[in-house]
Design a protein that fits this description.
Blueprint (H helix, E strand, L loop, with lengths): L3 H7 L7 E7 L6 H9 L4 E5 L3 H4 L6 E7 L5 H16 L3 E5 L1 E7 L7 E6 L9 H19 L9 H38 L12 E8 L7 E7 L4 E9 L3 H14 L3 E4 L2 E4 L2 H15 L7 E9 L4 E7 L5 E3 L6 E2 L18 E4 L5 E5 L4 H4 E4 L3 E4 L1 H4 L6 H14 L10 E8 L4
Parallel strand pairs: 1-2, 1-3, 3-4
Antiparallel strand pairs: 5-6, 7-20, 8-9, 9-12, 10-11, 12-13, 13-16, 14-15, 14-17, 17-20, 18-19
């Protein structure tokens, strides 16, 4: 078997548009998948995880990505989570294969085989035909979003005749269809907003502020702030990976599935953040959503008397701690995407807040206005963001909304923006 370092040294990254990139820590692609891609005449490349940083600069040459996560460890789970997020931001569909299962597969297009892969958030086992369907959907979406032409499935002469006969009718229907779809999306957006808090908790020691800016009628973000008992408030943001209606529906599922407290022996018990994340991840992984839907989340629990903050995250941007007179900090914690690995762990961290401190959690749509990673310096906050952090939390989020309207960014970077901010009152 070829050693992985040697494989990396021999890796040929795509130089022209490649239909399928197979990311793996193994020396080669499984033969049944290689056979499938060859029979469908799809261009392909096998790339090690270690080469993804280079591949990231060539995403315009990628159709879809299959990630072989078999035997991956917890550290690699986090890496895979970052890879999925990165690819989704570039509108590249991802298929994650976790482990082989033994089951008979009968395929009408390929010779039957006794091995396959299980795919998280999809089906228990996927056959070559089912894998081909998902690849086809991903490629069709990708080619449409990048403007790559797709060869017609019927002769051009028949297309021209059909087009002549149907053009007038289609043009007539277009206006009403667009209006109907827009109204449905508008109504869906209103329903989704009904799942957001109608009012923020009132506390003598903590002040709250929120911002919710969907990029479209419906949003892939969801947040909540919940008074769990007299002394504890839990708050979170969930960000579904992807866009449009599927992402919006996933946020509603998460809102119903997440549990912050429960009854034990007749007494209400607050569930620790790490357990909240682990339970939610298990529910999502077991639900077997179609479309390979994943999500990120950051959940925080604040004791409003002691100001102790406990938090856990799942592939989400780090919370930001703003302390008067000190450098602004990111509060780091490990944790991979929700819904990918059923046994993933989400360690919780704890920080002691002080009067005057502000804590901000946000979805990744806010990142282009907050800060960025630089090769030598690491993560740095933008000057425009640093200019507003000294304001009280309500004013700060108001100024942040103004910043999103005035700062020029790449249109392709614009996404749903959600922020939840809290501040320990100075006179508390």
């Amino acid at each position: 078997m070829m050693e992985l370092p040697l494989l990396i040294s021999r890796t040929k990254l795509p130089k022209t548009f490649t239909d399928v990139v197979y990311l793996t820590n193994r020396p080669k692609m499984p033969k049944e998948i290689k056979r499938l891609l060859s029979q469908k005449k799809l261009s392909q490349a096998v790339v090690p995880f270690g080469s993804f940083s280079v591949l990231r600069k060539k995403t315009h040459l990628i159709g879809t990505v299959i990630i072989d996560a078999e035997d991956s460890n917890e550290f690699e789970h986090q890496e895979i989570g970052h890879i999925i997020q990165s690819l989704e931001q570039d509108n590249i569909g991802v298929i994650v294969l976790t482990h082989r299962v033994q089951c008979p597969i009968r395929s009408f297009s390929l010779s039957p085989t006794k091995t396959s892969f299980s795919v998280p958030a999809s089906v228990d086992a996927i056959s070559p035909d089912e894998l081909w369907i998902q690849i086809s959907v991903n490629l069709a979406f990708r080619k449409k979003s990048t403007g790559i032409s797709v060869r017609p499935s019927i002769p051009a002469s028949k297309m021209e005749l059909a087009g002549t006969n149907k053009l007038a009718e289609q043009l007539k229907m277009t206006g009403s269809l667009v209006e109907n779809l827009t109204e449905q999306l508008r109504m869906a957006g209103m329903v989704q907003r009904d799942f957001l808090p109608s009012q923020l908790p009132e506390s003598p020691t903590v002040e709250w502020a929120t911002t919710f800016l969907p990029a479209e009628w419906v949003s892939g973000d969801m947040y909540n702030i919940d008074q769990l008992d007299e002394d504890h408030i839990g708050f979170y943001i969930v960000d579904a990976v992807g866009h449009g209606m599927p992402a919006a529906l996933l946020t509603i599922f998460v809102k119903q599935a997440i549990r912050l407290k429960e009854m034990r022996d007749g007494e209400p018990i607050i569930i620790p953040p790490s357990e909240v994340m682990a339970r939610l991840n298990t529910k999502m992984a077991q639900e077997k959503f179609s479309g390979y839907q994943f999500a990120t989340c950051c959940y925080c629990l604040i004791n409003t008397k002691t100001y102790e903050l406990t938090y856990a995250r799942a592939g989400h941007p780090y919370p930001v701690l703003i302390r008067p007179g000190q450098p602004t900090l990111q509060l780091e914690a490990r944790g991979s995407l929700l819904g990918v690995f059923e046994q993933a762990e989400y360690p919780e961290e704890c920080v002691q807040l002080e009067p005057g401190d502000k804590l901000i959690i946000y979805s990744d749509g806010a990142e282009p206005f907050i800060g960025n990673f630089f090769d030598e310096k690491g993560f740095e906050f933008f000057d425009e963001f640093k200019a507003i952090i000294d304001a009280p939390v309500v004013d700060m989020l108001d100024r942040f909304v103004t910043l999103t309207k005035t700062k020029a960014i790449d249109p392709g970077s614009f996404d749903d923006i959600t922020m939840v901010g809290m501040q320990i009152k100075s006179d508390a």
